[in-house]
Amino acid sequence: MPDFILSQILVTVTLIIECCAMQLKNKNYILAALSVSCFFNGLHYLLLEQPTAGYIFLFSSIRFLISIKWKFQWISIVALCVSLIITISTYTGLLSMVGFVATVFITVGSFSNNDKFLRLMMILGGSLWLLHNFLLWTPVGILVEVIFVSSSFIGYYRYYIIKQSVKT
Predict the structure, then answer these.
(1) What distance in Å separates the CA atoms of residue 17 and residue 100, rounded to the nearest whole number?
(2) Per the record, a Pfam family (predicted)?
(3) pLDDT at residue 168, rounded to an integer
(4) Can you tell me the distance from the alpha carbon of 86 to that of 77, in angstroms, rounded to the nearest whole number?
(5) Cα–Cα distance between 166 and 160 in angstroms, integer?
């Protein structure tokens, strides 16, 4: 089986998980689902010969699990440093930079105790991963990020915009 086809199959698993993840209310469930989806997404990028994105996503799988238990800002800083080291050591150009900046938003959000802030950071980071996937041209990867960003926005809308308008 060609690597491209296998990569699209693996990222389809990511797609299925992320369709549901951002509709969950419990932040820890969101982070656990994102951990699993990152694992499959990382393998997808490695098959597409994108080591920066691949290793960042594999590391993100671990980072999301850590952020469920511990919200210390120093862990967030360590995670950002690890992502920076991954980016520098696997640098391939513009895609590496876009992926790193996207990871900064998502890392900062995942270590926040504020669900609303988490969702906003996921929208920003997911939008940059969407740009990354367009530049790379990974069709299912593009669909993953379109659904992830849309789902994140819908979850944000449901939990924060509608509920706020009902209160007023």
Answers:
(1) 22
(2) Imp-YgjV
(3) 64
(4) 14
(5) 10
Q: What is the pLDDT of residue 157?
A: 92
165 CB-contact burial (10 Å; exposed 0-12 / middle 13-18 / buried 19+): exposed
Q: List, for residues 57-76, the tens digit of each pLDDT value.
A: 999 999 999 989 988 889 99
**Separation of CA 65 from chain center:** 13
Which amino acid would we find at residue 97?
A: M
What residues does each domain of the chain span?
Answer: 3-167
